[in-house]
Write a structure and sequence with these properties.
Elements lengths: L1 H15 L3 H12 L2 H26 L4 H25 L6 H16 L7 H16 L3 H12 L2 H26 L5 H22 L2
Helix pairs in contact: 1-7, 1-8, 1-9, 2-3, 2-5, 2-6, 2-8, 3-6, 3-7, 3-8, 4-7, 4-9, 7-8
Length: 205
């Protein structure tokens, strides 16, 4: 359980910093009470984590040998892709990700009244974050972790990692957003995925 908790915490914390959901939280926190944004964002990420773990447990019903090799292949493939992406990035923050986050927030704001209630703000943060996270690499990685590790440990670790990233985004996101090196974070994430792939291969040997 401790191994699953640590893996979930590290994987999510490194992968989510500088991600689209991170910048959605940053932008929302600039216009709305940070407490409400944090509640909505964290609730969405927790819900996504629980769904991913449930799906991972369903996948774990397949023959163990298939799960084992699929987990190794998935982590190594993600690791290589992230390292390749990092090599193509500039040292600055990825403006494309920020622009996508800004566009998503603007579109949501247009569909809501100017005088938003607390519930409306929480729902907006929840929906925007949930939709942005769907199909993201962290969701797929969480499914893979849950398929081969303790589901409770993965769930707690991943939710804590998401909560840490959400807190950073809403509290100090405006100050650090321009200083985040998407290239470095992507590189670290790629290395982490490769490490998990190697560990999975060793444990199954």
């Amino acid at each position: 359980m401790l191994t699953a908790f640590t893996a979930g915490l590290l994987l999510i914390t490194v992968s989510e910093l500088g991600d689209k959901t991170f910048f959605i939280a940053v932008i929302l926190a600039m216009h709305h009470p940070r407490r409400l944004v944090f509640i909505g964002v964290t609730a969405a990420l927790a819900a996504m984590t629980i769904l991913s773990v449930i799906f991972g447990q369903a996948v774990s019903l397949l023959p163990k040998v298939y799960i084992h090799y699929a987990e190794i292949a998935l982590f190594i493939a993600f690791g290589i892709k992230l390292l390749y992406d990092a090599s193509k990035m500039s040292a600055a923050c990825d403006t494309e990700v920020v622009e996508e986050a800004e566009a998503a927030v603007k579109q949501a704001d247009l569909q809501l009244p100017k005088q938003k209630t607390s519930l409306a703000i929480v729902i907006e943060a929840f929906v925007l974050t949930f939709m942005a996270e769907w199909g993201d690499r962290t969701q797929i990685a969480t499914i893979a972790l849950a398929a081969g590790n303790n589901p409770i440990g993965v769930t707690i670790g991943a939710i804590l990692g998401h909560a840490i990233c959400a807190a950073i985004a809403v509290i100090g996101g405006k100050m650090i957003a321009g200083r985040i090196s998407e290239r470095q974070l992507t590189f670290i994430g790629g290395c982490l995925f490769l490490v998990f792939g190697v560990v999975a291969a060793i444990e199954g040997a």
